[in-house]
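Notebook, student rotation project (T.W.).
Task set for the rotation: take a protein with a known small-molecule partner, predict the structure of the complex, and write up what can be learned from the model alone. Partner molecule chosen: fe (ii) ion. Sequence and SMILES entered below by T.W., checked by me.
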Amino acid sequence: MAETTAATATNFFLDGNFAPVDEERDATDMTVQGSIPSDLSGHFLRVGPNPVHIFSEEAYHTFDGDGMIHAIEFHAGTARYRNRFVQNEGFKLEQAHGDWLYKGMNSMLDPTPSRVPEGAPASKNLANTAFAVHNNTLYALHEPSQPTVIRLPGLETEGPTDFDGKLQHPFTAHPKVDQATGEMMTFGYSFQAPYVTYSVIDAGGKLVHSTPITIAKPVFMHDFAVTGKYSLFLDFPITLDIERAIAGGPALDFEPEHGSRIGVMPRFGTDADVRWFDVETGSVVHTANAWDDGDEVVLQASRSKTSDIAGAGLAAENLDDTQGHLYEWRINLKTGTVRERPLSSVRCDFTRVNDTLACHQTRYTYAAVFNPQRPFSFDGVMKFDDDTQSTTIFEYGEQRFGGEAVFAPRINAQEEDDGYLIGFVHDEASNQSECLIIDAQDLASGPVASIIMPFRVPYGFHAGWVAST
Ligand SMILES: [Fe+2]
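Predicted structure of the complex:
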């Protein structure tokens, strides 16, 4: 039984298993149901918001929480758990002060005077969203900020990097690493022009190319996609509008009249090379993958009809329209036409593929299956097979919810899906967290191992896998 009791709070994101944990812990002798595969070697990582000092519980937004990493290191059939805060400057200043210094995104216009000390960063680099692994470096990411270098196995924070002063823009939580070339493609979005800036970091970790990308108005561009040849930008209509916020409206809102378009640019192209293709209006938070196919560029992502971002996604009566499904766009660069269609009727997000094949054609997409009644809640994990156009699901069971599951190839993997899906699940009836390891070639049989976590693991954002070298 987990010893940390989940809190009851008025804010959805501070309640139950969304509530933060207080301590950094280590565990080695954990109870395992089934057995941990001996051909699994590396670190499973999950990051998420774990707020310590909160300005206003009522106004707290889940994007504001201090980053905490939960990690399980697998080796020769054994597992070792650690959780650590990401110790960037804003976090350390609040720890030293013993109270909040930064107010949070819903409180920017609150008249309470700021407590941010002179000379301190104007905002916290929370590093609470996702991971990237590139050039033997692990980054924890936060899209308004610079990437934070994290050391394994101990999860020590080395700190943010600006790539020798060359990174001049915020850095998405979802850069793409093309393992065929070793390059990492990234972008950032901003309230001020240029609203989007794109960069390429070479295999040796040098930022070698940057270009602004012109769009009509600033949008919440959480993710993008990359093929072997092209980088794809999603100018979809979750708009950012400071004046709307000052007038009492939401800073972020779904504005369908803005339309939806996908920009296609050669990997080392510039703003003038971007070709924009109009597509049906909708909302995309996460892409799965993209690739080149003859004259076509193929993009697969989770897409919803609309978005409730202004309501923080909590409008439960609207989930039919705000929860995404897997969807495909085929952009023909020769004819200029776009064919688009849904791929699966299962509502899902947190799309993942085998990372070793990112930017190149993949057959399988994995994703977290939405609970159709409760916002931000995932009932299971799914695998979509693009060859057979079929979806397989493993459901976690009654009162059991998970998050992103990551694909971890087994040692000497021979096929695309030769490996495991790993993710945390929380049983809300018993307040018990588990780490599930599922054979990616056989979801229906359920986990090959379930590690009973000695400490509660709150719901979080993205997961990652760093294979042992
Ligand atoms: Fe994300």
